[in-house]
Fold this protein.
Amino acid sequence: MALVEVSHLVKHFVRNAGLFRKGTVVKAVDDVSFTIEEGETFGLVGESGSGKTTTGRCMLRLIDPTSGEVRVRGENVLAFSRRRLREARRDMQIVFQDPYSSLNPRMRARQIVEEPLIIHRLGDRRARRDRVAELFHLVGLDPTHLDRYPHQFSGGQRQRIGLARALALHPSFVILDEPVSALDVSVQAQVVNLLMDLQQQLKLTYLFIAHDLRLVQHICSRVAVMYLGRLVEMAPAASLFAAPQHAYTRALLAALAPLEVGGDVTVGVGRIGFALQV
Amino acid sequence: MLRVGAAIVLLAALVALVGPALTPFDPAAQDLALRLTGPSRLHPFGLDELGRDILARALAGARISFLVGLTVVSVSAAVGTLLGAIAGYFGGLVDDVISRVIDTLLAFPGLLLAIALVAVLGPSLANVLFALTIIGWVGYARLVRGQVLRAREFEYVQAARALGARTPRVLLQHVVPAAIPAVVVQATLGMAGAIIGEAALSFLGLGVQPPTPSWGTMLNGGRAHLLDAPHLTVFPGLGIALLVLGFNFVGDGLRDLTDPKRH
């Protein structure tokens, strides 16, 4: 059975509605359906404004969808009570795009990573401290930097803190919302490799949201392409890139062709080394 | 400017704190034979229309000013921050109700509303505090509402929600702290406003009642003697002006300091 099953997900935003005005309806997500198998990395790509981020947020109920179903292990997340949803959040987490706005600037790295444990009342103070150090180690950060504030870390390090926070509750499903698109290319590769390693180590299932097709090509098993709120194409990564069916997918692929100058991409077991000279 | 303001405010606070120890005279003791006497070595600020030592009264008045400022500002800021945060975070009907109350209160000239309130409730220090708070919290609520509307969309707020944090935690840990610098600036400027408000109400006889000295009542007492004994009004007037200036300096300085465009 699929771990995550999204069916006929719809999210409409009403803009500029007033007392005497109906406003215009923006169909951010328009009848989107897909399934994610346990242990796979499912790619969701599209240009900005295509609704891919909204889809991810709806799946976690950070935004309430207009209609549709999101099933995790067969249970409809959208029908969960508040209490049940809180429980369910331990199993599904999110890593955000912007390493600068995704961490509270007034909290130390230690507090940021510890917060999920406090929220779910896991362990006493000592157990939490040990777990935070363990998580720091897990994502490749120096535990002596635990008492630093976010601004004292680099972009890549901050993204690792966000990852440690997301992993604190032992989730099985993680939404990666453009997790590396704000980072330098060299740092991107490091973080992507970390993500791949952690997936194997912790048996994680990823929804990888991205606009960078090259990235998706190498780390995703299957890819769905979104355009103006709709899924226009969904296929195994290899066949999508080899023989794109939809005109929009072809346009996306054509758009990045000139960028692949001297691209030296080695694909092992999910590991990539970028040597892009753009 | 921040330093000058801070120096004035700290000095005034110190004077208000140790006040009575600086002069041997009781602010309420009258010596009618010496009424309206000008400054002398024994009475550096002179004596008022009932022969009371003006320095002693000004020092006691400083206490009232600080008491009013601190009480009004802390209660207004707390209530305003809470309601503004709730309105901004939840939106919808809650926001509509709170925002309409804010609009309604803002439609009245603040001091006029305070005068009307005290006139109905009866003149007393407690009612002055109440009236100034009623007109005071609105500014904080509107300010915080705007800040929270902005902060609500921060990814770290979304992250906290995704982790399963309950609303009070999201608000207190992540949303409201983002609004605090703006509230501190507003509160400093609010101290100045509250001090002027109290002085105005007391000047009109609606505030602190005799024999308790307040800078506002002292101004009122000296009004009839502006020409023959100006020292009655000069000293409490200077007190108000300096303290308000000090708080405004501090407020402006803090605002510049927290302005993100400066960095």
